[in-house]
Design brief:
The complex is a heterotrimer. Chain A is mainly α. Helices cover about 60% and strands about 0% of the residues of chain A. Chain A is built from 17 helices and 4 strands. Chain B is built from 5 helices and 10 strands. In chain B, the strands form 2 sheets. A 5-stranded mixed sheet of chain B has the order 3-2-1-5-8. The termini of chain B are far apart. Classes of the chains: A mainly alpha, B alpha+beta, C mainly alpha.
Chain lengths: ~575, ~270, ~240
């Protein structure tokens, strides 16, 4: 008899530290990531609150902070963007929910490499601490924007905050790259190697597909960001000239020579564009999952949805130059990038049509997760349709670096992706914490947030067309922009209300963890594997049993079936798919 | 809730569309030769995208209301999709997006692939933290040499761009903080930056180009109406980015000649 | 409906399906993983993990190639010039280092196959009364570690030679790339060395041989990759000048 042919699955850990702090359990790690993202999003929102206040009242005295100076505004802007993109949008949808539910949805007891998983969380947390530290060093946080264009980011004397603060910012991002790569490794290996019997690739829920493709994007993109950051650190601290040509700052000739600022832009955006797809793809997966579950209908065009996710991922690597149409890059390259960028609208449109197709002829249950999924589709359409403007270089001429761009990416990343996170939270909260969130509070949260975010970000398109440039700390100097202040005022007030409404969500979240009504194992009557197990799931997810999958992920209202849903592990019948 | 969702989505759609249609806040009047074609392409894009926007949002709102679960015994249309439909809307979308792109390409080519005309007015624009300087080559038509170690923004326009006064071609160079250009004559712009990336943006001209240190970027445009137009820096360049603006004054050729002559005389 | 107790699909008492452990179908079929699963999984993880390292060096290569050919604006003459001056590499030292690294790859491979054999024989060895005779316990792993350290020391010597010739990190664009590319490689190799030291440590701690085999197998593939990567970098710096 084989001696060590089987490794016994690791027994559930004892003790508070092993169970909740240094846990190897993907479920605990997922929740840790989620709370990190929660802390990050409230930090990021606070920064944007200060920004919105400053824009309409530039000389206001903020309690405990004083007056916000122009350079401080730029630091707020930089850190807001960086924290939101990295520590919220790359963390919560992928590392948070993906970590928790990928293994369960494919029928695995844990991720492929639990120790690596734990390390990836703590490394992410370290990156966050280093990032926040930038606020507290001499000079403060950097002011070069989340995009960190050189030479502004490469010259310590180009502005306040560009000394130690900038070095910490780069270091934090480098640490984050490594953490993300560790996570991507785990996700891909797990999805390829740990699927349960019967869980073919074409039976995986679309959430799993989105986590897989997102992980592949991250795997390919974060290494490039890391190299960009290393070159920047070298330019800043060791006198190299990768990005900096001969420049004169305040009458002082700097010691660099021959570097290319465009090199930074190429490297950064080669990462940066896939990054924004990393931010949105998991939300698309969640939207598909929620729409199907609550419409009580299979997702319309499952295969097309899978191919669309793959196409978006692949094309996402070929479009980075559309951020650089005005940069001095060759106009011939601009033409090529433009064509690719317009093409990426096609798989995005396919997904939207399929979401609408899922709703057609359905029996929609308008519970809170569904509200956010519907909101996601609306916001994705709105944010997506401003893309074809920016994708054409001639139209980018008036619109680049204006509020039009800010409106575009906020509607997609700052709202649609966030709605994906909200929807996922309301949906999976019962499974994670064993209780239901309050439905009335959820509806209020939804309505205020949907209307509020449209009120904040839709007017930005008008401002952009009127020529209002972005990253201006105030609009008092350029006459044609001063005329647009009333719109800014409207947006700020909308922001105050919308940010306030998020406290409703926060309250609902924490209150329900302790006081919410107890949830059954499958309160939404859903079909995927996480709903077949106990609430919350046991340590090895399935209680010593390994699931066997007989059906596709979205078998709702199958003609002839006794219930209006067939779970993936239900016995194979004539209606097996 | 279904009806509420329909109303909210439709209201948001119609209010947003109203402000687009009413052009309440819009691109300023285009006063450059390229503006006409750019604005045409813009109009085509926003009409098509606007149509898609309204249709998609209204469809979403409608479907959510019409197919909500009212407790009735209506059967759900069980469907995994429709391949023909997928092919149809994929093709249509591809034609729409790629078509739009191809329609805009000749305009881009005309703007960027063509060299400046022979009689274009050469102007060198230099951006630095936080001001724009404009240099005219004078009668000899040549820009004088500049040297980085001569750059001193506190000592006047010529020192600001580091003009090497020993170079004979520098003697007739006129350097100002306000840009004067004659109407209906192409401007052959050379963009430079001294410290970080800036961007020369004049909304009325539909003109924008980043000024990049280490590069000398040549662009051209032709103003078509006399007037004063603001320049706004359109690339984050530091704490003074918000006040790095300037002025372009488009005047008649006669007025321009007079202005240049005055500047040359003032140098004596 | 939501919030109410509903009939659970009970996998405990009245079992609808017999539990199926391991193997079959797609993926590993779930259940506790055996060592062949773990080995396959670790190798897959390594293949995935090598991808970002490749991307890192691809982006550095791209920066290198583009920078070589990039015309730069000479601020004094306002003309575009090509300012790339190739670095004369300390050939002898680098060739020696390459040989050391290649030999270390050989010793690593021998070590990998040795432990694979050991792991395959482990079940047999556990049968009481069966003896397979003396095992050669030549420390191939230790030799690899030593050669790896020698390589790193050799790279350090190459850097010193470059400095002696007046080429420092910031001296010129070409010298920056020489230090950058060799430095990044050395950093990754050092990581591999740490893995080897860990493998040696687990050997001394008498972990089960199958467990050690997985560590050494994965580390050896990583090690071979580092050798191939070094040859690539050396060729790039020498021939794409």
């Amino acid at each position: 008899m084989a001696t060590t042919a089987h490794i016994h699955a690791h027994a559930a850990p004892q003790g508070f530290i092993r169970k909740y702090i240094f846990s190897l359990d993907h479920k605990v790690i997922g929740i840790q990531y989620y709370f990190l993202a929660l802390a990050a999003v409230f930090t990021g929102m606070f920064l944007s609150l200060l920004m919105r206040i400053h824009l309409i009242w530039p000389t206001a005295q903020i309690p405990l902070i004083g007056e916000i100076k122009p350079e401080t505004y730029l630091s707020l802007l930089t850190m807001h963007g960086t924290i939101m993109v990295f520590f919220v949008l790359t963390t919560a949808p992928q590392s948070g929910f993906g970590n928790y539910f990928l293994p369960i949805q494919i029928g695995a007891p844990d991720m492929a490499f639990p120790v690596l998983n734990m390390l990836s969380f703590w490394t992410t947390l370290l990156a966050f601490v280093v990032m926040i530290a930038a606020f507290f060093v001499t000079g403060g946080a950097p002011l070069h924007g989340w995009t960190g264009y050189a030479p502004l980011s490469a010259l310590p004397n180009s502005g306040p905050g560009e000394q130690l603060g900038a070095d910490l910012w780069i270091t934090s991002i480098a640490i984050f790259c490594i953490a993300s790569l560790m996570g991507a490794l785990n996700f891909i290996t797990t999805t390829l190697d740990l699927r349960a019997k019967g869980m073919t690739l074409m039976r995986m829920p679309l959430t799993v597909w989105s986590w897989l493709i997102t992980a592949i994007l991250g795997l390919l993109a974060f290494g490039v960001l890391l190299s960009a950051g290393i070159l920047l650190l070298l330019d800043r601290n060791l006198g190299t000239s990768f990005y900096v040509p001969l420049v004169v700052v305040n009458g002082q000739v700097m010691g660099h020579k021959g570097g290319s600022p465009l090199l930074w832009q190429h490297l950064f955006w080669f990462f940066g564009h896939p990054e924004v797809y990393i931010a949105i793809l998991p939300g698309m997966g969640v939207a598909s999952q929620l729409l199907s579950t609550f419409a009580r209908k299979p997702i319309f065009g499952y295969r097309a949805m899978v191919y669309a996710i793959m196409a978006i991922g692949l094309l996402g690597f070929m479009v980075w130059g559309h951020h650089m149409f005005m940069s001095g890059m060759s106009p011939y390259s601009a033409f090529a990038f433009s064509l690719m960028t317009m093409s990426i609208g096609v798989p995005s449109a396919i997904k939207t049509f399929n979401w609408l197709g899922t709703l057609w002829g359905a029996k929609i249950r308008l519970h809170s997760p569904m509200l956010f999924a519907i909101g996601f589709v609306s916001l994705f359409v709105s944010g997506g349709l401003s893309g074809p403007f920016l994708a054409q270089p001639v139209l980018d001429i008036p619109l680049h670096d204006t509020y039009f761009v800010v409106g575009h990416f906020h509607l997609i990343m700052g709202v649609a992706a966030i709605f994906g996170i909200f929807g996922a939270t309301y949906y999976w909260f019962p499974k994670m914490f064993g209780r239901m969130m309050n439905e009335s509070l959820a509806r209020v949260h939804f309505i205020i947030t949907l209307v509020g975010t449209y009120a904040i970000f839709m007017p930005m398109h008008y401002l952009g067309m009127a020529g209002q440039t972005r990253r201006y700390s105030q609009f008092t100097e350029v006459a044609y922009q001063t005329k647009l202040l009333p719109v800014q005022t409207f947006m700020s007030y909308a922001a105050f209300i919308t940010i306030g409404a998020q406290l409703i969500f926060l309250f609902n979240l924490f209150w329900s963890m302790w006081k919410g009504p107890k949830a059954s194992d499958n309160p939404w009557e859903a079909t995927t594997l996480e709903w077949t197990t106990a609430t919350p799931p046991p340590h090895d997810n399935f209680g010593g049993h390994t699931p066997v999958v007989n059906h596709g992920p979205y078998e709702y209202n199958v003609p002839g079936a006794s219930k209006d849903f067939v779970m993936q592990t239900d016995p194979a019948t004539a209606t097996a798919h | 809730m279904g009806l509420a969702l329909l109303c909210i989505i439709w209201l948001i759609t119609f209010i947003s569309t109203y402000f687009f249609a009413a052009k309440t806040w819009w691109l300023p009047k285009g006063v450059a030769a390229a503006a006409g074609r750019i604005d045409q392409q813009f109009a085509l894009t926003y009409l098509l995208m606007g149509l898609v926007f309204v249709l998609a949002q209204c469809a979403l709102g409608y479907l959510v209301w019409k197919y909500r679960d009212t407790g009735s015994k209506r059967t759900v249309i069980y469907s995994h999709g429709n391949t023909k439909l997928e092919i149809l809307w994929t093709t249509l979308t591809a034609i729409l997006f790629v078509g739009l792109n191809l329609m805009g390409s000749p305009i881009w080519a005309a703007e960027r692939f063509e060299p400046p005309k022979a009689d274009a007015l050469p102007v060198e624009v230099t951006g630095m933290q936080f001001a724009w300087y404009f240099r005219y080559p004078g009668a000899d038509g040549k820009f004088g040499a500049t040297k980085p170690d001569l750059i001193d923004p506190s000592s006047g326009n010529e020192a600001a761009i580091g003009l090497d006064t020993n170079d004979s071609a520098s003697k007739d160079d006129v350097i100002t903080g306000t840009m004067y250009i004659p109407v209906n004559r192409e401007v052959d712009l050379q963009l430079r930056a001294v410290d970080v990336i800036h961007s020369f943006f004049v909304p009325a001209f539909r003109f924008k180009q980043d000024a990049v240190p280490g590069l000398r970027i040549r662009m051209h445009f032709t103003p078509t109406e006399i007037g004063d137009y603001e320049i706004a820096c359109a690339e984050l360049c530091g704490m003074g980015h918000y006040k790095m603006h300037g002025m372009v004054k488009v005047v008649s050729q006669a007025d321009f000649d007079k202005w240049i002559a005055e500047r040359e005389a003032a140098k004596q | 409906m939501i919030g109410t107790k509903e009939p659970r699909i009970n996998y405990g008492g009245a079992v609808t399906l017999p539990p199926i452990m391991g193997g079959g179908g797609d993926g590993s079929g779930g259940g506790p993983a055996d060592f062949s699963d773990r080995l396959r999984r670790a190798r897959l993880g390594l293949a995935v993990g090598l991808t970002p390292i490749i991307m890192l060096f691809v982006s550095l290569t791209s920066a290198y190639i583009v920078r070589q050919g990039l015309p730069t604006l000479d601020e004094n003459t306002n003309r575009y010039i090509h300012d790339w001056l190739p670095v004369n590499l300390p050939w002898l030292i680098l060739i020696l280092n390459t040989c050391v690294l290649l030999v270390s790859s050989v010793t690593m491979e021998v070590s990998r196959r040795a432990i694979a054999r050991e792991a395959a024989l482990a079940p047999v060895r556990s049968i009481p009364g069966v003896s397979l005779g003396e095992e050669t316990s030549f420390p191939w792993l230790g030799l690899t570690v030593g050669l790896g350290l020698m390589f790193l020391f050799g790279q350090w010597m190459a850097w010193r030679e470059l400095a002696f010739r007046g080429f420092f990190l910031a001296t010129s664009p070409s010298s920056s790339f020489v230090y950058l590319l060799t430095g990044m490689h050395a950093l990754h190799l050092a990581g591999g060395l740490l893995a080897l030291l860990y493998a040696s440590a687990v050997a001394l701690l008498r972990k089960p041989v199958e467990s050690r085999r997985v560590v050494i197998d994965v580390t050896s593939w990583y090690w071979h990759f580092m050798a191939v990567l070094w040859i690539y970098i050396f060729a790039l710096l020498e021939f794409a000048r």
